[in-house]
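Whiteboard transcription, Tuesday session. T.W. wrote the structure tokens on the left side:
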């Protein structure tokens, strides 16, 4: 059974793609982008380990109250076998509920994915509605759509035009927003989206930025 390391999970997010979304931050990224929003997700040994079956069950429960799902990180494609298993399960069972589709952020470029010896990585592609690719380039930071920097590209799934049907382009070309979630169970305040703030300030105040 495949296992996957997860940094955190959120339900009902409105700033990580259209609709209300489940957001899964995977743990582990080797890209080391300067200015990364989420350096806590880099270490592949941190976070919490789930079997894909366990994580899928959680996603299935959350899909009752959400209209889409976003995988981000970390780099979800650095755990490509487990991601593939999850994407297959979601595609087979949950798309009628997740009508705003599946978004995956990755630090790999589309070219690197297509030329990778990792077959699982390539097999993920037709199961994703919108892939946002490439490392974060601090000097190319933008604030007017869903990607973090101008070098990153939107790759919509062309099969039956499913990508742009589920995730219309005008819904992702919007001003970036920030969301604050209070997690009383875990004594945590989460900030997600595209904060235009100094991370250190909030860290000193005991707030975690996702
Ligand atoms: S690919 Fe994403 S998570 Fe990884 S270092 Fe770059 S910005 Fe951070």
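and on the right, the sequence the group agreed on:
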């Amino acid at each position: 059974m495949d296992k996957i390391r997860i940094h955190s999970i959120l339900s009902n997010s409105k700033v990580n793609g259209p609709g209300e979304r489940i957001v899964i931050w995977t743990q582990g990224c080797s890209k080391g982008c300067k200015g990364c929003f989420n350096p806590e997700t880099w270490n592949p040994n941190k976070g919490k380990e789930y079997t894909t079956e366990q994580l899928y069950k959680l996603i299935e429960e959350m899909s009752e109250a959400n209209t889409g799902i976003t995988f981000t990180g970390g780099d979800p494609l650095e755990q490509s076998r487990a991601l593939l298993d999850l994407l297959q399960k979601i595609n087979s069972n949950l798309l009628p509920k997740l009508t705003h589709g599946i978004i995956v952020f990755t630090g790999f470029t589309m070219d690197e994915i297509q030329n990778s010896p990792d077959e699982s990585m390539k097999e993920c592609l037709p199961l994703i509605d919108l892939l946002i690719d490439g490392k974060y380039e601090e000097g190319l930071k933008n604030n007017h759509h869903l990607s973090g920097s101008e070098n990153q590209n939107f790759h919509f799934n062309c099969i039956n035009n499913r990508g742009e049907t589920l995730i219309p382009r005008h819904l992702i070309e919007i001003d970036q927003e920030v969301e604050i979630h209070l997690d009383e169970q875990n004594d945590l305040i989460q900030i997600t989206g595209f904060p235009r703030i100094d991370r250190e300030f909030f860290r000193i105040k005991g707030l975690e930025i996702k």
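Someone added at the bottom: The chain has one domain: 3-204.
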